[in-house]
Write the structure tokens for this entry.
Amino acid sequence: MVKMRLVLLEEDRYFVDMCSSYIRTSEHAEKFMFTTFSNKEQGFDYIERSKEPYILLVHESFMPLPERVFQQQHGCLIILSDTSVAADVMEYPVLCKYQPLNQFFSHIISHFNEYTTSPRLRGDHSAEVISVYSAVGGSGKTVTAAHLARELVYQGKRIFYLNLEQMPSYSWLESGLKQTENNFSRILYYGKIGEHLQTAKVELYKRQHPVMGFDYFPGVCEPAEMEEISEKDTQSLIRSVLATGAYDYIILDLDSALQHRTKAALRISDQVVWLVLDDRVHWEKTQALMNQLLSSHDDYEVDWGRKLYVVVNKFNGNLLNERSILPVAISGYLPYIPEWKSYAGVEILQVRGVFSEGLSKLSLLSPFQAEAHTYAVG
């Protein structure tokens, strides 16, 4: 991947050193080459002589800029300010430098990707999409999806968690804090305008979970708004995250009901972790829905038999129902955690322990050592 040069004109050496250190030690090291100038004339001379595209960050103290700066073909120009500035008050965007550096650089990348005619800034990762699904509600999808995302982060992978439930478990992501930003609704809005713009906004609207370590879009939609998300909307959203090249895995947390967005997510997934409980009703509903998918003529291009992985959740060590009832062989087991039956806060569910150990044995984290992955339509 070709790196973009980032040129910073700034007299504040502390800020310059922080930016340089952050770029070297973060995922942005694969995107940027960093050049700084604290002297106006040296910086302007470099700009005049430069023949390569670059992103120019100029502190407001360097204003006004000489005409020759605007005559050069740079990637984009962003003005840095010591204070927060309302958007769109100048011809060029103004970015406050006093904010978390991950968000600071996300703004830069998003702005460049939105307006550039050059190749977009992206990572060099090729992500797999993993859905966590169950035919019956209450199977532990969100707990499993969040812990799976965290286990992959623990292995050094870059993970994006995307909840597509009608009524997501908001406490899992925000730890019960008051919702301050609804970036999920915003990213959906940009998808209506165009997938290119939506991809550019991913970097701007993502946040990192402070405990679990994965990225996600904070905020949730109203249930009615979630219901209106179409198959096209869902595909666009997932493809936009994929197009950033920033992730190794995208984990989808899905509803049990097969709405358009759930069907689209299942189709686009490389693997589907299908949770069942050792319960006759779960067995029968899973059998019926799996047989429907496996025999469907509408999805002839989807090899469901290869992407479906049945995992028994809340397993107590003794399987009561016959394995042969299910069209797809059981691929793994996750333990029953009595302490999780009822709780006052999600903190207890976020602790790595026996459940995490069970996840680490699944083929998503290591090759399946469980039963052969075969199926038969009943």
Summary: The mean pLDDT is 85. The first helix runs from residue 13 to 25. The CA atoms of residues 191 and 198 lie 5 Å apart. The two ends are 48 Å apart (CA to CA).
